[in-house]
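Record type: monomer structure entry
Structure origin: computed from sequence
Chain ID: A
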Amino acid sequence: MFVLKFGGTSVADRAAITRLIEIVRATRQAALPNVLVGTQQDPRGPIVVVSALGGATDRLLGLAAQAGAGDADGARENVRLLLERHVEVAGVITDDGLRSEVEAYLGREFGSLARVIAALAVLEEVSPRWLDAIAAVGELTSSRIVAAALESSGVPAEWVDARKVMVTTAEHTAAPPLMDETEAKLNYELIPLLAARQVPVMGGFVGATVDGVTTTLGRGGSDYSAAIVGACIGASEIQIWTDVDGMLTADPRLVPSARVVPQLSFDEASELAYFGVKVLHPATILPAMAKNIPVRILNSRRAEALGTLITASRPSSGLPLTAVASKRNVTVVDISSTRMLMAHGFLHKLFGVFEHHATSVDVVTTSEVSVSVTVDDVRRLPRILEDLKAFAEVTSTRDLAVLCVVGEGIKGDATFVSRLLKALGPVPIRMLSQASERRNITIVIPDADLPGALTRVHEEFFA
């Protein structure tokens, strides 16, 4: 039994949803012959998890910002435009009765949203709890449209309110799931539907506390939702349907010659996702790794493409590198203090500052008296610097980028580092770090040098 997750571009309009319907239909049809010839593939499902319509979440967060600024008229207009777009997309539902039901549901959801926005505009304040309630509208409405579209096209489908099955903490805007409670809810709600040969359809990204208060898992959380569902239900495969053919050897916007990686390991995928590969949310891999469930990345616009398969291990490709990832708009913070030389607790105190301000660091290099770290979330940086200056000398440098080379073959190639540095050429290296598993090397360089550096590294190892 498969879990199929469709991203925003895969539900962006009527044409996209029509392609989704055919993918789901083909998945159901492919399972039956395999069962008849005696294989172990589960004929139930699939379970479908969808994102909001492409761009809808940004629009929802934008109107929340308008409400917070007291712009009631602007926010109200955005609500009206979002409703119009959803009604237009709902035109993909061919059954008149089902379409009328969905249009009525959309009217109620966006009507409620308009009332909430009007009240928040008076207060000129949007709390994290209300921000989650606003953002959740995107996935709730898109999943309702998709469920009805499948049903009207002859695929038996049932909409599932994600808030009834995805149980989270109350950490609004980035709520971690409570896995035991979520597994119990998912099995209670989905197993009967699967047994009845229905296709459960739910929105990703959205959950609720044990008390039923709406939460979200954070941006990119729809991938994470799909992985959680797959892990809790015991899926044989989790498929992430997006608008590219799979994970690529580099960012194609910077390296046009980038090509699809046919297979990689969970560990490689985690590194690539964390360091900037946008195809997959970094947290997606974790539930799949825990249950050893393969993850496949596929293109909803080219369903015939083989995509990228992610498994616990992979056959050797004969190359040291699997792919090159990059992250822009990075800031380096340098912390040094001779007063703290060999002092017990220096690192604990230093990283405690970042923890206190809820800011994660990516790359770390250390010496006896200094530590350098990279951050890409600089919203709290002024306060972090102020706290660090209480016990150390601190400087920060912006306009940097991270270039991360990833591959299981790195540790077995004695010439790899020299080839890498030669490919970088004259680019000044700000920081360099190698993970203990020796499957990746991370380099911090000036942002302006990133496109050229990426191209040369890619040509060196993939040409």
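Annotation 1: The domain at 2-243 is CATH 3.40.1160.10 (Carbamate kinase).
Annotation 2: The two ends are 38 Å apart (CA to CA).
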